[in-house]
Amino acid sequence: MDLQSPLYFNGVDVGTGAYLFPPTSADELGRRLGRAAPADPQHADHLADLRARVDAHATGHYGIKPGLDANDLAQAGWAAVFPAVRPDTAEAARQDAIAEALQPLLALRSAQASAHDGRLFKIYRGPDGYRPGESKQRFLARLGAGPGPADPVKVPYYLLLVASPEELPFFVQYQLDVQYAVGRLHFDEVAEYAAYARSVVAAETGGLQLARELAMFAVNNPDDPATQLSSKHLVAPLADLLAAHAPDWTIRRHEGEAASKATLGRLLGGDATPALLFTASHGAGFSRGDPRQRAHQGALICQDWPGPAQWREPLPQDFYFAGDDLRADARPHGLVMFNFACYGAGTPMYDDYGQRAASSARTPIADAAFLAALPRRLLAHPNGGALATIGHVERAWGCSFLWPGSGKKTGSNAQLAVFEGAMRELLRGARVGAALECFNERYAELASDLSGELEEIGYGRQYDPRELADMWTANNDARAFAILGDPAVRLPLAPAGEPARRVPLPAIAVDSPTTEAAQEFTLSDAAPEPIEEAQPAVRTLRDALEQAVRSLGDLEVRTFVTADSKAIVTAGREQLPALAELRIVTRIGPGGDVDTLVPGDGKALDAELVRLHLELAKQAQAQRGELLQALLAALRAGSAG
Predict the structure, then answer these.
(1) From CA 475, how far away is CA 346, in angstroms rounded?
(2) Which of 154, 348, 364, 627 has a CA between 20 and 30 Å from the CA of residue 209?
(3) For residue 510, how far is the Cα from the chain centroid?
């Protein structure tokens, strides 16, 4: 490919049918980069971190402190990071509800990370949460951590960001990812957090065992160089490489005409759902202000699109798979999905790359940053959701895995080696965040090289436009991969040669506030089995779990009615009795006993109010049952270890 050959980038504008980023030559792109400002790190400190990681790569693993096993939470640690909010506000009340909904997952991770050292599980909320406008360096400094490999005693290695990208920006996530294994959760409804927590706990403690199946979904649209490149030079060779190293896995390829929207529906919770799904396609893009942007941006454009030559008008939804295409009866439980597509994980408010590649100012592409709808729907599916998805924030640069010389220190097909490394780690059962460390190492190397090159160009050095374009696209590609979901999850695989085993999620009764889970699982069930006293770590775990079970106390669900909803929104929980009328109370004891109190004032109870109250009680009791099951499972796991 010469300097004047057009370069094609992933992403299609659904509203026009044209490419999101027009094809351009390496010469043109390289000269634009060379004319831009000397260096473009988000922060000078971030660039220093990247260069430190490059220096450390030769001597050992940079992500976590040497000598620690990143796949053992008892050594690596785990933490949830919430945005800092002011107490007694609507935001604080919502955060309380989210934390309560995540409690089964938090309890499980606490037991796993605290098996040897109680300091390795943390929840950063309130004054310890992420503060608006804070840099990564200032945030970590407040917590007692600094540059260099992650020391889990100071800040745990696995970080789950429970925040929208408006509350905790994408660029801070990128920066944290240089040192830590970072994932993110953000849903519109509190119930979706509960659904995700239930899925993870059930996958790790309920005996879920998926068949060792990898699906490779490669779109190859007619007359479309971008998907032809990814199909031929990414998916096909990657599948061959993985087959050679994972003989106990079944690798199914869905390429060309087989990469249809109907096929993708079967892979996402249908009858062909694998344990691990890798897709390469265009991502759907929408202009700012389009009412479909939040719901469909990052949707996967399938083989159904006839390609740019035959289709020169807006794309119908028949051509792409969006979040609302996921069926209500889908069963994606346990799935991990890896997408190579524009906006597959999320969309920033501003075009991160336009400032250097095409214009002199950042261009707003959305009214606010947001996560893609398809992975959010997968993670929170009520039938049991996916455990994690990996995808791009902003554009995916399809040519970066192919171009030779992407960076000064690596050879041909270096990006493909990174994909191979991450996928091999996932196949062998590594935790998702640890598996993606090779992308972080690649990003650190490329960003360090690119920044140095741009700085030299700013002082008049002559440069090769092709080499600069190579480095820039590969850097952007490696940087923008993000994990949605808990970064500590791993594929729940059946042992080699054994059949898959799917387990139902904890059932919820429909005829009583008491759930079936609570009726079958009481406090006596949570009593620990005999454990040898000679195991100090297990004994510590047992004591912690027993204390947690004793502290649960009664669970109380209260339903109020009021004519002044505005006052209630900003009220704290203790203020509710003075501002609203209490109509129904249900109190559930740790042993599963239930007391429901209704007013004796002669007022008729509204049927819809009763239905709502009972549903809330069911949800609360289900979460209590899941929490107890998670604690018991963690104790038994510690005993077995």
Answers:
(1) 18
(2) 627
(3) 32
Rounded to whole angstroms, the Cα distance separating 371 from 19 reads: 21
**pLDDT for 44-86, tens place per residue?**
454 444 444 444 444 444 568 888 999 999 999 999 999 999 9
Report the predicted TM-score, pTM, of the whole model to 2 decimal places. 0.75
Q: Which residues contact 428 (CB under 8 A, 6 or more apart)?
A: 246
**419's tokens:** 């994909």
Coil vs helix vs strand at 316: coil
- Joined together, the tokens standing for residue 481 give 């991969």
CB burial string 360-398: b at 16+ within 10 A, e below: eeeeebbeebbbbbbbbbbbbbebbbbbbbbbbbbbbbb
Structure tokens, 283: 């991502």
Facing residues of 122 across strands?
79
Per the CB < 8 A criterion, the answer to whether 240 and 231 are in contact is no
CB contact at 8 A, 170 and 369: yes
Q: Three-state DSSP class for 514?
A: coil
**Residues 29/34/40/46 CA torsion (nearest 10 deg):** 100
Q: What is the pLDDT of residues 140-154, one digit of tens each?
A: 999 999 877 899 999
Nearest to 150 by CA among 49, 82, 230, 34: 49
Sign of CA dihedral 289, 295, 299, 301: negative
Residue ranges covered by each domain of the chain: 509-641
Distance separating alpha carbons of residues 386 and 275, to the nearest angstrom: 9
Q: Which amino acid is at 232?
A: K
What DSSP letter does each residue of 333-383 carry, written as one string? TT-EEEEESTTSSEE-SB-TTHHHHT-SS--B-SSS-EE-HHHHHHHT-TT
Residue 477 to residue 415: CA distance in whole angstroms: 9
- Residue 489 and residue 487: Cα distance in Å, rounded? 6
What does R_g of the chain's alpha carbons equal in angstroms? 25
Query: How confident is the model over 124-144, as pLDDT tens digits?
Result: 999 999 999 998 889 999 999
Q: Provide the CA 470 distance to its chain's centre, in angstroms.
A: 28
Dihedral sign, Cα of residue 50, residue 56, residue 57, residue 61:
negative
Question: Which two three-digit tokens encode residue 510?
Answer: 């429909």
Which ranges constitute the DSSP H helices of 489-581? 516-520, 536-550, 565-569, 576-579
**Residue with the two structure tokens 């450390």:** 56
Task: Tell me what percent of the chain is helix, strand and coil, each rounded to the nearest 5.
Answer: 40, 15, 45
- In DSSP terms, 25 is beta-bridged to 6
Per residue in 83-100, is it b (16+ CB within 10 Å) or e — as a string?
Answer: bbbeeeeeebbebbebbe
Rounded to 5 degrees, what are φ and ψ at 254? Answer: -125, 95
Distance CA 633, CA 551 (A): 18
* Residue 501 pLDDT grade (very low, low, confident, very high; cuts 50, 70, 90): confident
Q: DSSP state, 235? A: I
Q: Can you spell out the DSSP letters for 205-227?
A: HS--BB--EEEEEE---TT-HHH
Q: What average pLDDT is seen over the chain?
A: 79
